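Hi team, as promised in this morning's meeting, here are the two structures we talked about. I've kept the exact order from the run log so nobody has to guess. The first one is mostly here for context; it's the second one we should focus on when we meet again. Sequence first, then the predicted structure tokens.
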Amino acid sequence: MIKKVLIACVVLLLVGAGGLFVYFDSIVKSGIEIAGSQVLGTEITVSSVSLSPLNGSGTISDLKVANTDEWDSPYAFELESVSVNVNASSVFSDVIEIESVTIVQPAITYESRITTDNIRSLLANLSSGESDTTGSPEGEAGKSIIIRELRILDAQLNLVTAIATAPIPLPDIEMEDIGDDGQASSIADAIGAVLSEISSSILSSNLPNLDDLRENAEARLQDGVDQARDQVDDAVEDLGGRLRGLLDNN
């Protein structure tokens, strides 16, 4: 009898632990989507989160940040996988402590106009979104955050213009102690710090100018025209050969 009770207790503990893991992942996923969307004023989606409630290490999969409405490309950031190490107990507190964040090969889409670009639009939207959430500090966006280490490695910038699209590698970005200057940052401030660093990295990169993009686009267009002309010439030659064959047979 005692043995059966012990077995039942073990089974219940295992089921409870499994439920805790699922519940924990769901809390983190919802927190990212809700808090991020609130402060940026645009949609943030996450496919899944796998995070251990025991040691706080895990992965955020397929995180996407939508562009604001005035831009053509659907997303500003597409992160296939984000490795994180979180102080698990802090997830339920007012200050979330993140030991490390590593983002490898993120896709960043960059659209620009004369006076602004889509990254700066997100930053401007961030200020507006932050003011909208100050009245509800108990919500997800009202939490504070500390990030000990953030690394963005092998980022791929997709430069989008009216005449061409060009992929450009960005230098790695490393940041430390975001929100750890004596007072934790709001989530809005932390996101703003990261976006500002990315924007500075883009603007200081060796981006091709419009003349270079135009020349590349014209070259690709000319290659297509030449290829089409060759195909037409081959087809005409083939048809001429067939007609000559018919005439010779007659």
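And here is the second protein, the one for discussion:
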Amino acid sequence: MVEYIRAEARPEDKFGHQPRLYTLAKKIGKNLKYDDDILFAAVWLHDLGVFLGHRPQDLEQLSHWDHVPYTISKSRELLIEWGFPTEKLEGVAEAIRHHQAKDDPATVEGALLRDADILEQLGAVGILRAAVKVGRDTRYPSFSSILPVLTGAVNHLAHETRLTESKVMAESRAEMLRSFLTALQDEAGDMLH
């Protein structure tokens, strides 16, 4: 599974998200009971539909693309091919189905994946993940176009985590992001472009 994602993750920097996310999810869940097979598969496969080659190339189609249904379908296909326990397939699908900040996961694995995914959008990693999109993602033609993403993360996402451990982690990451945004405003003002 890891090697498959390593090969499919395009652009290449998308690969780092999964190992960081799995480490974060396990850290958040250190005192919780969860199925690690489900968590591992859901973490490694949850963003398959955002990779180049898995999402539409047409800009109009891409602007309406919801990667989650594709990811659930493709993940199920791959997991069956790889001999993953069939009784755990729905658990993986459920975690992927509810991994975004707007979602309300009903399983521990889903909550771990969702909270870890939120944490990845905060702090230093959140800044890097946003900045790397500038100029290569049609939504972000300039540095100033990612400011709403970073501001939204610190103002809204930081308060969306559900689990105790992730709430603590979100506070420090949000503070780091706040400091960065303040420094950026001090240094560039409205001349960032």
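Starting points for discussion:
The CA atoms of residues 68 and 97 lie 6 Å apart.
Residues 1-102 form a domain with the Cyclin A; domain 1 fold (CATH 1.10.472).
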